[in-house]
From TrEMBL:
Coiled coil: none
Annotated ranges, domain N-acetyltransferase: 20-187
Keywords linked to the UniProt accession: Transferase
Gene Ontology molecular function, alphabetical: acyltransferase activity, transferring groups other than amino-acyl groups
Name of the protein in its database record: GNAT family N-acetyltransferase
Domain of life: Bacteria
InterPro entries with a match to the protein in the record: Acyl_CoA_acyltransferase, GNAT_dom
One Pfam family linked to the record: Acetyltransf_1
């Protein structure tokens, strides 16, 4: 799917045959070696070799429910995890008061954008692709962005920014803290 506002930007499902694109993207983004394992393992991802995290993500791509890749001029520039919330065990433990009783919710909990592609609509395109998919399938999407307007908001924005989700039709349904809303999009 090509984002209509930026024809050079397109988003595709992350599949096993796109693995080399992720291997190119993650180091180019200045990431910390998590290979998008935080919401599965919590801080444990820090305690194991980065290669184990990398191998885990590669295996997850094979399952078909790992995420989305954004391309700018055919170069990989963005990643978003898009997984059933039930496949992210650390999420419920990290946010103990999060109501996880609703089945079949899909989570969009983190993003990686190449440092040379920031402020070019990559995160917006990834969110937009996920919402289009949710409309087509009737899925409920959930995310946990940072509300950067909240006093003392963390500067760690790997979960996205509230305004970007609101522009795509997500609504705040709860707050885990002053700077951490829970947003949902119902397709």
């Amino acid at each position: 799917m090509t984002d209509s506002t930026t024809p050079r930007l397109r988003v595709e499902p992350a599949t096993g045959d796109r693995w080399t694109d992720l291997e190119e993207l993650f180091p180019a983004s200045g990431f910390n070696g998590c290979w998008c394992q935080y919401w599965l393992l919590g801080a444990q991802y820090h305690r194991r070799p980065h290669a184990e995290n990398r191998d885990a993500l590669r295996e997850q791509l094979g399952s078909g429910s790992a995420g989305l890749l954004a391309y700018l001029d055919n170069r990989p520039v963005g990643w978003a995890r898009l997984s059933p919330r039930s496949e992210l065990p650390w999420l419920a433990r990290r946010f103990g008061r999060l109501d996880v009783s609703e089945p079949d919710v899909w989570s969009l909990p983190c993003f990686v954008v190449a440092s040379n592609a920031r402020r070019q609509g990559v995160m917006t395109a990834l969110i937009g692709h996920a919402t289009a998919w949710a409309r087509a399938t009737g899925a409920v999407l959930e995310a946990y962005p940072i509300d950067d307007a909240a006093p003392g908001a963390t500067r760690n924005r790997f979960t996205g920014v509230l305004k970007a989700f609101e522009r795509q039709g997500f609504s705040v349904v709860d707050r885990l803290s002053d700077d951490r809303p829970v947003v949902q999009y119902r397709g």
